[in-house]
Design goal:
single chain, alpha/beta, 6-stranded parallel beta sheet, 3-stranded mixed beta sheet, 14% strand
Amino acid sequence: MTSYLWDRVTVVGCGLIGASFAIALKQNNLCRTIAGWDSEPRVLSEALKSGVIDEVDNCFAFGSNSQSNSDLIYLATPVRSIISFLKHDGSRTKPGAVITDAGSTKVEICATAEIHVRPDRHFIGGHPIAGSHESGLAHARVDLFAGTPYVLIQRATSNDDALTRVEQTIEALGSRVFRMKASQHDQVMASLSHLPQLVSVALHDTAGRQLGSDFLFKLAGNGYRDMTRLAESSWPIWEDILRTNSVPIADALDSLAERMSLLSKELRKVETNPSTELSRTRRLFKHRE
């Protein structure tokens, strides 16, 4: 007889992350039943039809007054939707339920949980570093989390048993778990994730303005394509990220802009003095000399 870590799990948001989480739970026999909910009826219907979820958790439908009997709730929606769920729908979970999320920023989410999640429920903030510029149910895959970092937020009020169970679940999916504080997470992600996204979209926009013709993009090589792959990412998802981590991201942008300005000034000196030593620029290549 199979011993499951969870009896029933509800995945709220059946896009890339949520659907991949559901598939991976099934593959690894981590729960008996997987329920799902999504604000888009078409997505929810497809998730059920394709077997990503076993049943629909209608407790989270608008206007419902019923209570979900799932012992794990996995919130895989945009950041501000997660915040809204914690404010308005957390009471639809059962006492003792563990609620975790996959939001890309953590400070506002965890602060909301502190205020709105009832003491007899347990919230564990999380962030899988396993996304893609491709989104949606169609791109879900069982190995999305395998070999990737996964952050779990350690708070003073965290329930140790709930945190351990979520950690065991994530590790069973093949991820490497890192525990950290919410503020530390957001600061780190500003540099490692949010800044690269903005650089990618800004580079693509700048190239378009400089070239003035879509035809000339046919000359783009792998370097340009690699650098601008993230430019295809969804704006609604990124708007939430930018609004909930604005200061650390702005600080990262300012730091990058300062360095780029110094490089620009150095390169302009070459025109008047071809023997100018590109010392600042060379230092950026120091690991490749």
